[in-house]
Amino acid sequence: MSRKFLCLTSFVVLFLLAGCADKELKVPLEDVGMVGIMAFDYIDEDKTQLTVAIPQYSPQAEQNTQIFSVATDLVSNGIVEIEKLSDKKIVFNQLRVVLVNEELARNGDVLKIIQHLYRNAEVGNKVLIAVVKERGEEMLRYKYPDKPNINFYLNDLLEPSINTAFNPNTNIHDFMYEITNPVLDPILPFIDKNNDKIEIKGVAVFKGNNMFDTIKPEEALLIQAIKGRKNLAPLDINMNQGHGKERLMMDLIENSVKIKSNKNIDTPKLTIKLKIKGTLSEYKGERENKLNTTDSLAVLEDDVNKELEEDIKKFFAKLNDMKVDPSGLSEYFRMYHHGKWKKEMTREIISKLEVDVEVNTSIISTGTLR
Amino acid sequence: MSTNNKKLLNAYHVVFLTQSIMIGTGILSLPQKLSSLGYNQTFMPLLFGVIASVTLWPMIWIGSKYPDANLYRINEILLGKWLGKTINFFFILQFLVFSAGIISNYMHLIQSTALPEQTITLPVICFLLLLIYIVSGGIKSIARFCMMTFFITIGMMFFTSWAFQKGEMSHFLPLFNFTGGEFYEAMKKGYLSILGYELIMFYYPYIVQQKKAYKHTLIGIWISIFVCFITTAISVMYYSEWQLKNIEFSVLNLFKAGEFSFVERIDIIGITLWVFLILSSVAAYLWCAKKGVDSLVVKNSNAYLYILAIIIFFVVKMPLSRNFQDKLFTASNYVGYMFIIWPLLLVILYVLRKKKQVQS
């Protein structure tokens, strides 16, 4: 009896009181604007121009992307301003690319901007960062006639496609990891608009919290090789080792690296052993018709070794001058150093660092034709 | 369930009770709490495991002297009725605030990551209802729930594999690169994360094979320690020292490193599955509080369980500043250390009493 009564009362109460609940304030999916790209451009020391690109799904709209741009001093304030302009609620769950223009990277506080995004739980970890040569806003506003929506285009360009092209893709975590780690200087892809397309021009190297210089993709490839990445982008080698000018292209490269340090931070010295395995995909030069025996290939391998060793040494000489350490070589000294490691120590080490390089190339195949 | 001392807990019940109570919200922020050691925190959980194994011994020993009494009874026997009851009352308060602390911590985490647009009132009520349901089944149902929890959540280890692949082994070196002050700081903040095994003093009378209880509890402790060790090791590999210090819930960011093409944010899956771990910890604490109330009042009734749950609800939702709440919960965390020391005191008292009895 009492149980029946309880059931009845609870049913009645629940039924009637349902009307007293607050109306839920949830935004329906159609009213959510999912930001795909954010671009930051330098105005002056305090202000940045914040531009966001939001895919437009409404069939009535003529453009497939919505672009909003405001000048702001705080990132979150800029987002509030954009929300005022937009017909939708701005969310960052689908953020894919963050662009920073070169001027801002050189003079502004990139770390603060990225840190703001890193703090935001909404932002996923697949957000890629890139430095733009001119202005990010222009890049977003430009119509690329033969390309899809800019949101997809830029993301696909920066997304690591499986070692078809060189790509130093850096997501938010990588950037925060590199910039806060005293043994590393971050690198970011450096992109530029070239007529109707966007191109990865090179790699921006940071020194401390600001961009310092750009380096060529070939050099950045060496950084990746030394960092121990397993699969490398195709390697383009210009050789001059006693056989006149030669050019060759190696593909599908497997890389392994062994680094030994002398554990002495006063006279730092590293021995780097690189092992590269790959397919010779194209060759141009004097020996073109002689490369059909294993002996001749062995000679070629030796020449490639020498050439690569020279390249790497040259590159390290450059790093010595620049005093930046994008490949994290000071880690091999930090590992054996007791006490706190500071950024200045990295600078000192990289300026004094001597390297012994030993490259061991093996050409596995040259294709199916003889 | 019945309050007479039936033996209910088998060996595997004991193992998983110990194991699941230890892992709650603590492990989520363990790398951050140990961050004063920087990269050297890797092996701290192992040290904690050794300390836990040692401090477990007096707990089991005092339990074995009174095989049919839980800690509340032992307090009354050794300290006298009134002093014992007063202390039991404080134990209950401690358990309530401690549980409220865990729940509040977890709910705020849920609010900031998974449900940013909602208040936590409804989730807390649902959580407490589930909690009452589990606890009213008695210690055996909690133990069973703990086993289920373990097998459901252990799969989450897989989510850390991406971070493991990306990490740098070289971060482990150099070993022992810290000062005494840093070590003390890490010890003080970090040991909290593995508290929970001390509840053996309360469910000891229900164990079937009391002789082997020490061994079974140890297995449970070391499973948890191993999980903690993996967490800190992968965090050390994946993060820079700055990140270790500044990312509050390191484990969530480890999950975020995951790359599935069809799931954008694995951390949400992780954090929502985590509710099992929280439930299993808090259920055990609430059960202990309920036992405490039983020992204080003459008439046993299930109504006390509801009252305790309501008290927890009000502690979590109390209209005081976040600052005060934080202080209260931190204080209760440090009081939690008392349970490690308490059995030692009881052992000393017991030995003194025995001597007296022998002399007289």
TrEMBL record, chain B:
InterPro entries: Spore_GerAB (IPR004761)
UniProt keyword Transport, yes or no: yes
This protein's UniProt keywords: Germination, Membrane, Transmembrane, Transmembrane helix, Transport
Transmembrane annotation, as ranges: 12-30, 42-62, 82-107, 119-135, 142-164, 190-207, 219-239, 268-289, 301-320, 332-352
Keyword Transferase: no
Domain of life of the source: Bacteria
Its membrane topology: Multi-pass membrane protein
Cellular location(s): Membrane
PANTHER family listed in its UniProt record: SPORE GERMINATION PROTEIN A2
Family to which this protein belongs: Belongs to the amino acid-polyamine-organocation (APC) superfamily. Spore germination protein (SGP) (TC 2.A.3.9) family.
Protein name: Spore germination protein AB
